[in-house]
Design a protein that fits this description.
Distance between the termini: 70 Å
Largest sheet: 7 strands, mixed
Mean pLDDT: 84
Number of helices: 4
Low-confidence stretches: 1-28
Strand order of the largest sheet: 2-1-3-4-5-6-7
Strand content: 25-35%
Length: 154
């Protein structure tokens, strides 16, 4: 049995690996997220624009007449609810969560977390900019009966 030890064939493996890595990276960046919103809410579109900055993700917007049912179906605790709900790669993103926190969640993927939430509609959060007025708020990670502060903002 003989093996072909032609050195001109070896560079193909690194090249092929690089091509596959680029294809996978492009697929991850092109992931579509679905945001459910009340059709009469304007801040939801402002938040979606924040999430789209830099063309990181496509946001599909679905106007839904019964947002309470969307939140219930996705396991969002009553006290963490806000105006819109996004499904991002299997995670629930509730309310005005900063894009940096969504990106961190998608990178770290803690096994117990089902989603992130910013309860209510705090001034100064993404999509709720109000001429420099800012309310402190927290991003809460939730899932499996557990909650934890994921990030805090002044």
């Amino acid at each position: 049995m003989s093996f072909d030890r032609n050195p001109t064939r070896r560079p193909l493996l690194p090249i092929l690996g690089t091509i596959l890595l680029a294809a996978c990276t492009g697929a991850a960046q092109a992931a579509s997220f679905t945001m459910y919103r009340d059709p009469s809410c304007g801040c939801c579109e402002a938040w979606a624009a924040h999430m789209r900055q830099g063309d990181r993700h496509d946001i599909i917007t679905v106007d839904h007449p019964d947002m309470a049912s969307v939140k219930t179906q996705n396991g969002i605790p009553d006290d963490l609810r806000s105006c819109h709900t996004m499904i991002a790669d299997g995670y629930v993103i509730e309310g005005h969560v900063p894009s940096a926190d969504v990106e961190r969640l998608l990178a770290e993927r803690p096994d117990w977390v089902g989603g992130l939430a910013v309860a209510g509609m705090p001034l100064g959060s993404p999509g709720m900019e109000a001429g420099g007025k800012v309310q402190p708020y927290q991003v809460i990670a939730f899932g499996n009966g557990r909650r934890e502060v994921f990030a805090s903002y002044p």
